[in-house]
Design brief:
There is one protein chain. The chain is of the alpha+beta class. It has two domains: 3-75, Ubiquitin-like (UB roll), CATH 3.10.20; 84-168, DNA polymerase, domain 1, CATH 1.10.150. Helix content is 33%, strand content 10%.
């Protein structure tokens, strides 16, 4: 059974040791997800599984996702139009060099899905609350696995906050 990448079926690699990141970059020539640390510490390789779960593709074997749907930054745009969160990153200067941006955006989309499902974070104060407020601290904690070496955090937080503000209120 193949793997679906950004809506198109792709064959699994013959070698079961190939990471999902290497499949994306080296075999499918999708360069959005970056090989930063290659150890799961920086988040530059973050992609979405089945449209909602964020994973570090450098730590995932491609064969683990047989029959599943993977969305990388390239798959977020629809008919050439940027995803709303991509537009927010542009509006809020949520990037400088852009290296971490694809992972930040995919992570933020996955983070929003977790938050909507009521998954608590390390800083969630009331686990029994029906809804979790997406406060500044809550957002920063949930995005803490994605590093930006340029220090564009204020723009990133502003972009993510604005995109999900309506849902947060």
């Amino acid at each position: 059974m193949p793997i679906t990448i950004n809506g198109s079926e792709a064959p699994l690699p013959d070698d079961p040791r190939v990471s999902l990141l290497d499949l994306l970059r080296e075999q499918l020539h999708l360069s959005g997800a970056k090989k930063g640390c290659n150890q799961g510490a920086c988040g530059a390789c973050t992609v979405l599984v089945d449209g909602k779960e964020r994973i570090l593709s450098c730590l995932a074997l491609a064969v683990q996702y047989e029959g599943r749907s993977i969305t990388s930054i390239e798959g977020l745009a629809v008919d050439g139009a940027l995803h709303p969160l991509q537009r927010r990153f542009v509006e809020h200067d949520g990037f400088q060099c852009g290296y971490c941006t694809p992972g930040q955006i995919c992570s933020a989309i996955g983070m929003a899905e977790e938050w909507r499902r009521g998954v608590p974070s390390h800083v969630t104060e009331d686990f029994s609350a029906e809804t979790i407020a997406l406060t500044h601290d809550e957002l920063r904690e949930r995005m803490s696995g994605n590093l930006c070496r340029c220090g564009a955090y204020n723009g990133i937080v502003a972009a993510v906050t604005e995109e999900f503000a309506e849902a947060a209120s």
